[in-house]
Amino acid sequence: MRFLCQWARCLCILVCALSSQLHAQQGIWESHTLANGLQVNYCQDSTRQLLHLGLTLKGGASLDAADQKGLSKMYEHLFFQYLPDGKPASKAADDGIFLSHKTLLESQFYGMSIPPAQLPAALHLLSSGLATTGWSDSTIALAHQAIVGELQVMDDAPEQQLATELATTLWETFASNKHTTERYADILKLNSQRIFAAISPYLHPANCQLNATGPAPATSFWDAATASLGSWATEHAAAQPPKITFPQLTKSIYFQSINEFAAQPLIMMAWPVPMNDAPDRLTRDALHFCTLLRLQQDQMYQHLIDSNLAVTYTWSWAGGINPGQLLLYVIPEKDRFAECLHAIQSEIAQLGKEKRFTPAAITSATRFLQLQAAKTDDLSIPRLLEKGQSWLLSPNNTPSLTPVNASNMQAFALAYLLDKPHVAGLLSNSALLATSDAAGRFEPLVATANAVATTNGKPTAALQSIDPAVLRSMRLHFLNDQLTVDADAAQTLQAIAAMLRDQPVKRIYLNSFSEGLGDGVKNYQLSVSRAKAIRVWLIDEMHLPAQQIVIRAYGEAFPEFADDNDVRNRRISFEYAPANAQDNVY
Amino acid sequence: MCIDKPKSFWALCCLCLLLSGCPRGPRLPTQPDVGGLVAYDYSGMTVMHQFSDRDYIHMRLHFGWQRPEESSFATQSIAVETAFAGGAGTYSTKAFARKWESLGATLQFLQTPEGPVVLIDCLPEQLTATWELVSLCLTEPLFEKSTYLALRARRISAFKAAQADRSQQALQSALQGAWPQDLEVATDSSAGRLEDVALTTVQLTFRDLMRQRCNIRLITIGPIDAERISDLLLETVDALPEGPCAPSHRDRIAPKMGQAMLVHEVRGSQALAGIFPGPAISSAQTVEMRLVMHMVEQRLHDKLVLHDKLASKLEARYVGTFPGYNLIQITGGNAFQCAEFALSELRKLRTYGFLSAEVAAAQQSMRTQISLGYESATSLAARLDATAAAEIPNLAGNEIPLLEACDARSCTAMLKLYLAGISWGMVGDTTGVDRKSLHRL
Fold first, then answer.
1. Exposed, middle or buried by CB within 10 Å (0-12, 13-18, 19+), for B22?
2. Closest CA relative to residue A525, chosen from A537, A535, A517, A514
3. Which of B32, B35, B368 faces A113 most closely, judged by CB atoms?
4. Contacts of A528 (CB under 8 A, 6+ apart)
5. Gap between the Cα atoms of B304 and B291, Å rounded
6. How many helices (H) and strands (E) are present in chain B, helices listed first?
7. What is the pLDDT of residues B365-405, one digit of tens each?
8. pTM above 0.90, yes or no
9. pLDDT in tens, B240-262
10. ipTM given for this complex
11. How far is B45 from chain A (nearest CA, A)?
């Protein structure tokens, strides 16, 4: 007891003036664009002892050609492979520079945590990595070795294998596949020239963003960044990385037994986030989507937990290089496996179809989101990663987290879930309810699950066609003398895009009209331009094939409202087009 | 000896001054360096609070180990987890989960070498409601049987799954070699023993042992004042039992050297783990030992990974448990060859010692590493917890001065002092492995 008192006294001595570590306010972001076009953001933050830098580079695993899967990962390991003075990158730590790097689906991220005094050295390291145009065979061999080391660690982790197995099964040709050792066999054959040739079109200041945060004064950071990176230039024009397209799921249910130690299954299910609907809103919308599914727990609980169908039930979000996927883990009650499966499918099929978000559920989801955002902000490198992702996905309008409320939550439910009503994948097993004599006990469950899949798990359902009359009633309106649509247009276009995507045989007309105000020729040209702008948007942003969209321009003709000058005549309407329809513009 | 001459007296004084001016190692500073940390004893419970201007509150509830004679470590660990997952008060497990869900807060269970820990994150405005639930778990846990059985089964299954992990196998073998009599402490018991633990044992363990006030340490970091924490604790602490806490970890002995536990496995990569003693965790020498192991890692990495390309992954570090020890883990194509090359490099180090430039570089690297540990609420809480567990709380914030007191000579001396023999665990093709050669340091 005396010892405890002494110890407590000792602890009490620690009371002193606060907050050298965590007290001061976090600052605000300032943005500069260097002469070469590189965008640099800095947030002076006196709560940090170290400076943190994060370089986001457009292009990631999605750049890999079919026969070069893993190339971007290889480049990631080559980026910091050697320091300017010829030392291995592992020696950067000797200067107090901690490196981190990551290949994502659409980008690469290079992070550094450094003492403020090492800023010039760290920036020099970054600029050297960007300016490197080739590597020796031994350097490539070292990078390969590092990747193999990573893979071995993953191979040794059963849980990791389980998640990879599921992702690989669901997204067969996707980037996650490169997490298998065999896939890297081809990469070994690549030489320096081929690696650089594949990556160099994207190594351009316009394709990068540098974000940093730390206690150094902003002015000194700008000076150092300008000195080190301002002169970086390449011979290439900036090549835009390819649009990210996410493969459609071909199976709605998949079942497999993995873990021989488990006696009863953990149902692990992946649900794809349809990011191809709105890739530029990934960060914000994925969070919303996460929240949305979280809200469903109220309903799920009633059907699975309260009905004693399942013991536990958890959602989680898996990001990284895998396509956006949410994972649902359910442990069924003993002997209620099939019922549980049917209930899950039934529940998921109902998601988004009804307004069933209670105020209490929305409040709890909002809190959860706020907590997650606060925790991410507390970690410097994840914070910079998130900042880079925001730029990448919305270069001109960096999104902020939209507050979740009852109205937009329902909108998200409808936007995301109607066209994906089925379970995406299902994998049994894992680490619960084990006994030592479990071998072979999964076999009947696998059969049961596949039976459920056959009867219940149909391929992803296509969206119903929009009724022709409804389609004809849809309108886009434009701002005066501009190609910009009004605020309500996005929802209309997304609904049409979703329908066209799910029904590739359908074609639509975009009928473009102008009001009667002003010069008739100019109005006609404006109607043509507006129709073309909408088509380009649907192709580029919604990833629709060009042949599905046919445009017709009418200028001032066929006003919808009697007054020629009524702004509502400035519009685009829609209707189904026959298979042989041609553009009608001059 | 009689000091009857001034000359002798001055000689003695000079000797004393000389000795006092040459400390054998860095000493722990007496002044703390973590600004704003409020640490106090609240009716027997240790509380540490750090104000931080972040948008959330992080809480870390640490339960110390009690004597394994009274209840095994595995039982103690699962007792805490079940208390927080198996319902509380009037809430069943499911109702409790839903209640927790409604707060938007997160709760996570963590097992550390120094005891089970419950991590809680919540928004500042949800603190009171969140603490009510935490308090309920401490004072009125329900211990629903189905939840306990599920948790127990999960642990057993995870244990078995870990057995398939070659790195883990190698580590377990090395631990078994180093502490043949005491595997439980390092591995959290065997699956077989956990299967026999009854629910009533778990309940008693939590109620009578784990939740004793002196056995709990609460660390909070967030935008609130310490008074708020005290207010929250007001009712909770009164409901907790007061009793003697007898930490058991000091009974453990130093690792046994010169043991080699081999697991024959010809498929896939091979793994190796080596253990040798380190300084007591409660001493200030731990900082220097970490520095030494950082340099050992660099040397071995340069040799085995970069130069000879024998290993694909290599880690070397000081492990701060009771007693502290040093661990080297290697993954590669041939574990035995890795061991031989590692030993050769270690022999060189023992003979020629570290270079000053090498020490300076390692110090620079560790400075960044230490600073990183103070940046986020989670890492700071973990650091405070670790130093408090080691009973040297004022080490937190003082690592950098201690680090700067190290030099090449003292680092070499430390390595020589502790690197007297290694206990190996190896998973790989053990055909033809010469056990004796594994110990020729």
1. exposed
2. A514
3. B368
4. A512, A551, A553, A585, A586
5. 20
6. 16, 11
7. 999 999 999 889 999 999 898 888 887 777 888 888 899 99
8. no
9. 998 777 665 555 677 877 788 88
10. 0.84
11. 9
